[in-house]
Specification:
The protein has 10 helices and 17 strands. The protein has about 350 residues and is an alpha/beta fold. It has 2 domains: about 1-80 and about 135-215 and about 255-350, Nucleotidyltransferase, domain 5 (2-Layer Sandwich); about 85-135, 2-Layer Sandwich (Dna Ligase, domain 1). The strands form 5 sheets. Strands 4-3-2-7-11 form a 5-stranded mixed sheet. The radius of gyration is 20 Å and the shape is globular. The structure holds adenosine-5'-triphosphate (ATP) and magnesium ion. Magnesium ion (MG) binds near residues 13 and 190.
């Protein structure tokens, strides 16, 4: 339950900035503004901002090109500096929990607690057992501050900081719901990382980020075919479209196949780890998103490795375009890259806590 107006969703990724603005109409949310701005390679490395000015300029430009005037935004962080864990604690009041949560975090989070921001969500109260289940989330303060500072320098007003995996879950819940009787994974494969979120019993039960993604494919094409970064990106995009792919240098397919298989193997290890530690029997389905989800070879590799049906998320299923300013072609081409920004765009200026 929440009130207030939607914030502008701002996703600062390794290769590009995606921004969007949603509006609440009588029949639900719709997209009214959209912006995209590419970042040069090495601007952000391992989630660290190496060239702050380039990111600020790209943010300003994404807002200008998208004709977005609202300044209040929601940001997200991800990668190795964010951790979430499902934990069980004795039943207590929210006030008690607010005091206790730092302690709990110290026991469950492998970071120095002084360096992190801790948050939680109550998943389930089980009075019969005298316990309740929480989702504990910790993110390194430095990283949050870096992203918040950058947004402020671009004259924006960040009101919410979420994590990539949960923003996509938010978007997914809006369009499909989170059926309580199903266990499935939502996986966002971007340029430098793949974030896995396993949903069980209608909530997130496990998240993990893997440091691998589409950039690795591009780098391998550069090495194997001997082309520039831009040419390698082009070749990769062509390989993702089956009908024009036949004219490509054969090494491109080999690279695409082998890197997709490596990513699928890493994903499978995480799914196996979850199965081994959660007592669940199987993952019913994998939903894929992020720019690298455009490669059908990745879906096939995951299906082969994990023996599970893979479906690419269609973010526009329940999100109609509601303004002529929205660049439809951009959205069609880059739909899977916009899931984080769209999920962030569902956050509101005022939210009531669960
Ligand atoms: N049509 C396509 N075919 C193949 N790859 C694509 C296509 N569109 C985008 N990509 C790849 O997707 C990646 C960008 O996706 P996305 O925007 O989700 O990542 P990011 O948010 O910039 O990175 P990260 O999440 O790792 O920080 C790039 O590696 C890009 O080459
Ligand atoms: Mg991303």
């Amino acid at each position: 339950m929440s009130e207030g107006k939607p914030l502008v969703g701002v996703d600062i990724g390794a290769t590009s900035i995606k921004v969007c603005q949603l509006k609440e109409g009588r029949s639900g949310l719709g997209i009214v503004r959209l912006g995209y701005e590419a970042l040069e390679p090495q601007t952000i490395v391992d989630r660290h901002i190496m060239n702050a000015q380039a990111v600020i300029d790209a943010l300003v430009s994404a807002f200008q090109r998208g004709k977005i005037r609202q300044k209040e935004v929601a940001l997200s962080v991800s990668g190795q500096s964010v951790i979430s864990r499902k934990i069980t604690v004795p039943i207590m009041t929210t006030a008690e929990l607010d005091e206790q949560i730092q302690w709990e975090a110290e026991n469950h989070i492998p970071f120095d607690i002084k360096d992190v921001n801790v948050d939680y969500e109550i998943l389930r109260r089980r009075p019969e057992a005298g316990q309740m289940d929480l989702l504990l989330v910790a993110a390194k303060r430095d990283e949050i501050n870096d992203y918040v500072q950058i947004a402020r320098q671009a004259k924006l007003k960040p009101l919410v900081v979420d994590i990539d995996a949960f923003t996509i879950q938010n978007m997914f819940e809006y369009s499909r719901g989170l059926p309580a009787d199903q266990t499935f994974a939502i996986i966002n494969v971007g340029a430098t990382q793949a974030s896995i979120n396993i949903i069980s019993g209608g909530t997130s039960a496990f998240t993990r980020d893997i440091a691998n993604g589409g950039n690795f494919l591009t780098e391998q094409i550069i090495k194997q075919v001997g082309v520039s970064y831009d040419e390698a990106e082009q070749l990769k995009y062509q390989a993702a479209t089956a009908h024009v792919a036949s004219s490509l240098p054969p090494q491109v397919y080999d690279v695409v196949e082998s890197v997709c298989d490596t990513i699928a193997a890493e994903i499978q290890r995480s799914l196996d780890f979850f199965i081994a530690t959660s007592g669940e029997e199987r993952i019913g389905r994998v939903f894929l998103t992020g720019g690298t989800a455009k490669l059908h070879q990745l879906s096939s590799a995951i299906e082969r490795r994990s023996r599970v049906t893979v479906e690419v998320i269609q973010p526009l299923e329940r999100l109609p375009i509601e303004a002529k300013e929205v660049d439809r072609e951009l959205l069609d081409q880059r739909s899977t890259q916009f899931c984080v920004a769209l999920g962030l765009g569902m956050r509101k200026t005022r939210e009531r806590r669960a």
